[in-house]
Design brief:
By secondary structure, the chain is α/β, with parallel strands linked by helices. The protein has helices at residues 13-16, 19-29, 41-53, 73-82, 105-122, 134-142, 160-168, 185-191, 224-234, 239-254, and strands at residues 3-8, 31-37, 57-61, 88-97, 126-131, 151-153, 172-175, 199-201. The protein has one domain (3-254): Alpha-Beta Barrel (TIM Barrel), CATH 3.20.20. α3 runs parallel beside α4 (73-82).
Length: 257
Amino acid sequence: MNLIDTHAHLTYPELENQIDDVLSRSRSAGVAGWISIGTDRTHNQRAVQLAQRFDSMFAAVGFHPHHANDVTDDDIAFLQQAAQAEKVVAVGETGLDYHYDNVVPANQERVFRAHLEIAARYHKPVIIHTRQAFDDSMAILAEYRDKITNIVIHCYGGDISQTKFVLDRGYYISFTGTVTFKKSDALREVAKTIPLDRLMLESDCPYISPEPVRRIQPNEPALIVHTAKCLAGLFNLDLGAFADHLAANSKRFFALP
């Protein structure tokens, strides 16, 4: 098995401080590729550096919408440079998050559009974070429909109607451990409607450990095997065959070697 964790925060201290052991456990579990995701300037720099240390690790650079109030023009200039760095395969995560009211929506939109401009300029895929902001997120993405080819909605939690909209736009969908939770029956029903060639898998570690290891903290890439087993069962596929499909999707989407 050769799964790829397409969204991991490996620069967070609880993982970075034991990164060799984390990656060793990951490989032993059958997860042999990783994309480390930046969320602010410091973590973007670390993600790029970390990707350059390990053959099967890559980086995505972006400013999480939670940080949008503090993102300056200098930060955007930095992001433009970082997006061109070796082994940076995507821009993000970026998007809109209205769950909390401490980040001004106008600031989030400004930063979101800056990410999309950079992704369009350098022909990079985009990793989207959207929480309680689906309509606004989709409206902004529509402005770039002819400029950005590959878009994935990460940590997916949409309903059937939203999922149809996302799929009609040609976007990809990535699941975390939330799809395994006991109360996630509706999300599992949504998962069954997604074409296999539009599906990817992520840990979003150090958060969202899947069932049946939900109590294990921090989450880490090795544990996405449980999410893969859950989804493979929904598709009535052997785990190995399912993993091969997802790895192929991830390599195609991110243009991985």
